[in-house]
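Review box. Two proteins, two foldings.
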Amino acid sequence: MELILNKYTPGQMAKASKIKAVVFDVDGVLTGGEIIYSNTGDELKQFNVKDGLIIKHLKNYGILTGAITGRTSQLVQKRCEELKLDFFYQGIRDKWMILKKEIDQLGLKDHETCYIGDDLIDLKSLVRVGLSVSPSDAPGYIKDHVDLVASCKGGQGVVREVADLVLASQGALKQIVKECL
């Protein structure tokens, strides 16, 4: 676990240790941000299975999960249902309004929430939560406003990286690894 923890600053670790909810954008975070259409008009997206696996562990350790996306997609709805997120919203333009409503309804504080986003529509949420993260391929003007720039691009395990940080900072990752041996 030391290898995971050593790549973060003490401030990042302190923020991660207080997190009770991890919330993320979809396109550009859970996916690489591409929208692919087949000749028949079907929408295709690629998700990273490692993100899905660690979400189950977050939930097992009492950390809430949610997704808020600006687009509307049956495919994304299906994936979020598979992940059994605590909440999922799509077609949202003011993500902070929805995120703040969920934070309040869940009895959390802003600083107990982590938000992962990659673009302008996410900025208001990123600057108001306790731990803000962007993928490595987010625009520089987004990365300038986050606590942590993930080492990977969107769709390549960003949620996994953040979840590992949160779980490790709270002492749970070591137990998860032990349980999987």
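Next protein.
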Amino acid sequence: MKSFLVIGSIMILTLCTACEISEEKSDDNKIDTSSEAILYTPPDAWISEMPRSSMRKAQYKLPGKGNTGAAELAVFHFPGTGGSVDANLERWYGQFTQPDRSPTRVHVKKNIIEVNGLKVIVVYTTGTYFQSNSPMMNGPFEEKPGYAMLAAIAETSQGPWFFKAVGPQHTIDAWREEFDNFVKTFRKSAS
């Protein structure tokens, strides 16, 4: 009986180790098995985390630069639901306020690019961010002055894929070039 338990434990450890090795060797992330899944390659310095919500397909910590804290990038996809690109952008802009109380949308830097056959909208804005720990952003909210958002939305026939990074402006600004390179890795899955 003892030898059976030892052999069983060794088999479980071997399987777990094999799973960890295969995950570590993967350079790409595939975030869905639908016909138009998005593949991407994150920068090596971004830290993959367990998503805080079941609504998130993936989550990364973008380490702080200098004396500023880390930023967080979340990946979302809601096939057939989740609202339009414009509705989501307006909601995201509403999570920021400006010192002069003007609408955030007038301060947004927005680019529309094509990446490997995908239409991608890239946006950047700054201001005071109203952070909620609720997955649905229902509050309570904590005001975070000096924050920024850098986001990309890739449009597919299965609905948009959302990549949203929020954090201290200094940290977001320090990651802008790497974020742009990250967006250039977006591609449709061959499956």
